[in-house]
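User: quick one, sequence for these tokens?
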């Protein structure tokens, strides 16, 4: 399930697409991220493309990216602000996914004991 969620987010947030589709795309991405977030908070295995190196690294930096993504995905309203939020969500997802594929520590909400 986590692999499917990560893959779907990768597709949804690969590009912001057209402004006329922004509300639907952002809502879909938010729903998928909520599912992934819930699974990882509950201790589900990490997506197979993410590498947990075991070193502490900069947990604060990765947590800031996670928080910025989460905030962008919660935007509601008119097409203009939602499209801006979708562009931000795309940027933050790419950053988060890149960090996690490179072995960054997990963001604080997903930390394992």
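Assistant:
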């Amino acid at each position: 399930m986590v692999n499917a969620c990560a893959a779907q987010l990768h597709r949804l947030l690969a590009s912001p697409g057209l402004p006329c589709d922004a509300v639907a795309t952002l809502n879909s991405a938010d729903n998928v991220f909520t599912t992934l977030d819930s699974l990882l908070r509950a201790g589900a295995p990490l997506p197979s493309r993410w590498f947990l190196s075991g070193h502490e690294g900069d947990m604060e930096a990765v947590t800031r990216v996670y928080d910025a993504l989460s905030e962008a995905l919660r935007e509601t309203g008119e097409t203009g602000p939602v499209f801006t939020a979708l562009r931000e969500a795309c940027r933050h997802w790419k950053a988060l996914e890149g960090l996690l594929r490179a072995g960054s520590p997990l963001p604080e909400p997903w930390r394992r004991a």
